[in-house]
Design a protein that fits this description.
By secondary structure, the protein is of the alpha+beta class. The chain has two helices and twelve strands; from the N terminus they run αββββββββββββα. The protein has two domains: 73 residues; 120 residues, Glucose Permease (Domain IIA).
């Protein structure tokens, strides 16, 4: 009887232990399976999250990259007003030189000494009138009949026979200079004729208002309607 009980008890224990072990194994297997499923779920979820974060990071990196490229682009240089200036030495720059008009060259109408000079302020003695008066021209000594030359190139304006100054030929030259030749004995030109420097316009004669003076030719120069110093105006001083 004891053997029977022992065996039955032993079988019960054996049966109960087997069940316990089996249950433990099932629990362990379940736990392992749950853990595996849970890990897989986490793994499957994390890549998505990681991909999202990676995509967002890639976008940020792309944006930052663009910003950096924009920031690193070289700025356009500010135009310098001197950039258009040719770096050519001044001596090598071609310049157009406009020649100045040449001033006319004048000569004396006759070779001789000046017996009486020009004076528009100081009085000079007149032997003919035996008084002091202004002398608005220049007297150049020469014998009667001496050739009188044109002092420059111009045009004959008038020829008159004056009771005070005798025969007078007036010639207009360049630069608005007009010359009166007074005391002519003969005249070779007529009004509006052209004359050239050195042309013989006539010969010397007499001057009624200066007849007691030594023989001479009297010339007057007019600029802008006023008598001026003949030698100064003609550049012969």
């Amino acid at each position: 009887m004891k053997y029977y009980k022992s065996t039955k008890f032993s079988k019960l224990i054996a049966s109960t232990g087997f069940i316990t072990i089996t249950a433990c194994l099932l629990i362990a297997i379940g736990a392992i399976g749950w853990f595996a499923l849970s890990s897989r779920s986490n793994v499957s979820e994390n890549p998505s999250k990681n991909q999202s974060e990676q995509s967002y990071q890639d976008k940020n990196n792309s944006y930052n990259s663009k910003v950096e490229i924009t920031d690193t682009e070289p700025e356009e240089p500010i135009a310098d007003i001197n950039d258009n200036v040719n770096d050519v030495p001044y001596s090598e720059v071609e310049t157009t030189v406009v020649p100045e008009p040449e001033s006319p060259t004048f000569i004396l109408p006759v070779t001789g000494n000046i017996s009486k000079g020009y004076s528009d302020t100081a009085l000079q003695y007149s032997a003919t009138y035996n008084d002091m008066r202004l002398h608005t021209g220049v007297d150049i000594l020469c014998e009667k009949g001496t050739n009188i030359l044109s002092v420059g190139t111009g045009c004959v304006k008038t020829i008159v026979d004056d009771t005070v100054m005798g025969k007078v030929i007036t010639i207009e030259y360049d630069n608005s200079i007009t010359v009166k030749y007074c005391g002519m004995g003969s005249i070779n030109y007529k009004e509006n004729d052209k004359v050239v420097t050195g042309d013989v316009i006539g010969t010397s004669g007499e001057i009624p208002s200066e007849c007691t003076d030594n023989p001479h030719i009297h010339i007057e120069v007019i600029v802008d309607g006023k008598t001026v110093s003949p030698l100064q105006a003609l550049g012969l001083e």
